[in-house]
Amino acid sequence: MNNIRKHRIARRVYWLRKYKLACGCEICGFNKNAVSLDFAHKDQMTKHIEMVSRRGGNGIDNLYKRLCIKDIKKNRFYLKELINEVRLCRILCKNCHAVETENNREFHNSRKIAEARGGSYKDRKNSPKSSTTLINFFN
Ligand SMILES: [Zn+2]
């Protein structure tokens, strides 16, 4: 990894941590350390396809690393996607997030969600299917 890339990613991490601390846990108010604060998706179906398809991924963590130094336009697109994703999330501490996930059974449904959105769980290049498929998923 070259230095510019390293520096830019570090800056994003810094920015994301600052944001998490500023918000604090939406449920219990914890805001002591950004490491214990997660971006939790309000709605699993709007989760970025790159994030759904990665097993055990930390969601946003997969997006902030997407960087294109040579192509400013492409980079701006990546950044826009990251910001959009942040907007779709609320901040929860690890504790509250775990309880919330269990309550929503998010973990058990992640494969189904990925399949409803884009076919194969493993193939993240697949684009999301039409909304009819998503409606069928919930029925
Ligand atoms: Zn909490």
Question: What is this structure's SSE topology?
Answer:
Blueprint lengths: L2 H21 L13 E5 L7 H4 L7 H4 L8 H16 L1 E5 H11 L1 H13 L12 H8 L1
Bound molecules: zinc ion.
The site of zinc ion has 8 residues, from strand 2 and helix 5.
Describe what this molecule looks like in 3D.
The chain has one domain. 55% of the residues lie in helices and 7% in strands. It has 7 helices and 2 strands; from the N terminus they run H-E-H-H-H-E-H-H-H. Strands 1-2 form a two-stranded antiparallel ribbon. The protein is flat and about 45 Å long. The N and C termini lie far apart (46 Å). The site of zinc ion has 8 residues, from strand 2 and helix 5. Zinc ion binds at residues 25, 27-28, 30, 92-93, 95-96.
Summarize the structure.
This protein is mainly α and 139 residues long. It is built from 7 helices and 2 strands; from the N terminus they run H-E-H-H-H-E-H-H-H.
Overall mean pLDDT: 78
Low-confidence stretches: 123-131
Proportion of residues in β-strands: 5-15%
Q: How many E-type strands? A: 2
Q: How many domain modules? A: 1
In whole angstroms, the N-to-C terminal distance is 46 Å
- What small molecules accompany the polymer chains? zinc ion
Question: Can you give the helix content as a percent range?
Answer: 55-70%
User: In DSSP terms, counting alpha (H) and pi (I) runs of 4 or more, how many helices?
Assistant: 7
Strand order of the largest sheet: 1-2
Oligomer: single chain
